[in-house]
Amino acid sequence: MAVAPLYKTQELKIYNSISGQKEVFTPITEGNIGMYVCGPTVYSNVHLGNCRTFISFDLVYRYLKHLGYKVRYVRNITDAGHLENDSDEGEDKVSKKARLEQLEPMEIVQRYTLDFHNILAKFNNIPPSIEPTATGHIVEQIEIIKTIIDNGFAYVANGSVYFDVKKFNETNTYGKLSGRNLEDMIANTRELTAQSDKKNPQDFALWKKAEPEHIMRWPSPWSDGFPGWHLECTVMSTKYLGEQFDIHGGGMDLKFPHHECEIAQGEAACGVTPVNYWMHANMLTLDGKKMSKSTGNILSPAEIFNGESDKLNKAFAPTVARFFMLQAHYRSILDFSNDALEASEKGFYRLMESIETLAHLKTSKTTEGFDIQNWVNECYEAMDDDFNSPILIAKLFEAVKFINSVKEDKATISEVDYKLLQETMNAFVFDVLGLVNINEASSDISDKLSGTVELLIQLRAEARANKDFATSDKIRDELQAMGIQLKDGREGTSFTLN
């Protein structure tokens, strides 16, 4: 008999940015989810803030799949149209980098797309179902501009096309995602410069006429030019997920104007609100301050992996850095520091050690000291509460404590509960959180470490037999200082990594 998917028994709640509250998640089509996440603009190496956003939505993707949903996850690559300062003026970010390095724009795109994929692979992110590019959808962008013009929400000015925000706001609400009022925005905006082709300062470009020096350009009914940055996401999300889809994610910094403009474009072109649940991941800080290239308060993923930064005392494995990020809720600000990473590393190894201990645990007739089924329910409750990974991790460490108690003969576990515990631990640690057991990957080092500690345990036992308690205590205390805890039990002395 077929087993019902988990989503049938779980009530998942998602914090919806547009309503400002948690809502019970109901997909448009039962069992199927369309999810779109704004991807990177590939003109430089991916930065840590981007990585946190993509790790957060990798967690979402993994959990939805774990619940049994069929998920189509679309994440774009912006390789054209994103101007400096996220405005409608200035130079295209990819074009500028190409000009500075005297390369073709697509060489820049290729280099930094490969870097992006490489870094996310190190973090063990699952690739999206579809990863479309802006330049691969120029035709579709031109067609949707025609539709928006025909619907009366855009105008042509000197070869460029602009979205008419005031006209749109007569029948719709511009600002409903970010909570901004159009009248207030207009009142607080300086007058347009004489050079501007816009009717109003809030209007945004759907198509920009290319200046003679602009490298990346395409023919259109209005001019040789390029699409506006906001347009690509509307086009690619609707093409692959439909005019209305379930989840749209991105960094908090994209809420306005990027996502606000996406909503306006979708409603103007299709007549329906495009997204049911808007999700936004919060920012990163470093040592309590905003990350900034200009101040030098910056840390790259590569620097975390190789330790070559004055902000760090050592290198950290990508999976440890991932674990650190997941210890904070995706909607909360996360502060990176060497001390915080070191603390996470200790916790990570404790978790991995317990997974290995669990694999060799002895079972009994009954379970005493822990309610396994209740614990399983609490793990799901944590993730069903807006993907609350820090609460989930806290629950996992409750299981770690129990596993160690069983190992030390202070608790027991039945065969049935053992299978449930092992299955649930593996599902949440590896499938949902996406962690990698680097203890297994470096088993040679682990074996040598174990052998060394076992030798010291033997020497300590001999010292105790000879009533040389000074030496015995010295071995125990020195190991403790190095983070190795000795535990004396009925079957001898074992050790754990703190």
Describe the 3D structure.
With 498 residues, the chain is an alpha/beta fold. The chain has 17 helices and 15 strands. The protein has helices at 48-66, 93-101, 105-122, 138-150, 165-169, 182-187, 229-241, 255-270, 301-306, 318-326, 338-359, 372-384, 389-407, 415-432, 438-441, 443-465, 469-481, and strands at residues 13-16, 21-24, 32-37, 70-75, 154-157, 160-163, 204-209, 225-227, 245-251, 275-281, 284-286, 289-290, 334-336, 484-489, 492-497. It has a 4-stranded parallel sheet with strand order 4-3-9-10. A 4-stranded antiparallel sheet has the order 5-6-7-8. Helix 10 packs across helix 11 and helix 12 (372-384) packs parallel to helix 14 (415-432).
Q: How large is the radius of gyration?
A: 27 Å
Cα(first) to Cα(last) distance is 45 Å
Query: What's the average pLDDT?
Result: 92
The count of helical stretches stands at 17
What's the main sheet like? 4 strands, parallel
The total strand number stands at 15
Apparent shape: elongated
- Structural class, from secondary structure content? alpha/beta
Lateral arrangement of strands in the main beta sheet: 4-3-9-10
Short note summarizing the structure:
The chain has 498 residues and is an alpha/beta fold.
Helix and strand arrangement:
Elements: E1 13-16, E2 21-24, E3 32-37, H1 48-66, E4 70-75, H2 93-101, H3 105-122, H4 138-150, E5 154-157, E6 160-163, H5 165-169, H6 182-187, E7 204-209, E8 225-227, H7 229-241, E9 245-251, H8 255-270, E10 275-281, E11 284-286, E12 289-290, H9 301-306, H10 318-326, E13 334-336, H11 338-359, H12 372-384, H13 389-407, H14 415-432, H15 438-441, H16 443-465, H17 469-481, E14 484-489, E15 492-497
Parallel strand pairs: 3-4, 3-9, 9-10, 11-13
Antiparallel strand pairs: 1-2, 5-6, 6-7, 7-8, 11-12, 14-15
Keywords: Aminoacyl-tRNA synthetase, ATP-binding, Cytoplasm, Ligase, Metal-binding, Nucleotide-binding, Protein biosynthesis, Zinc
Protein name: Cysteine--tRNA ligase
Binding site for Zn(2+): 38, 233, 258, 262
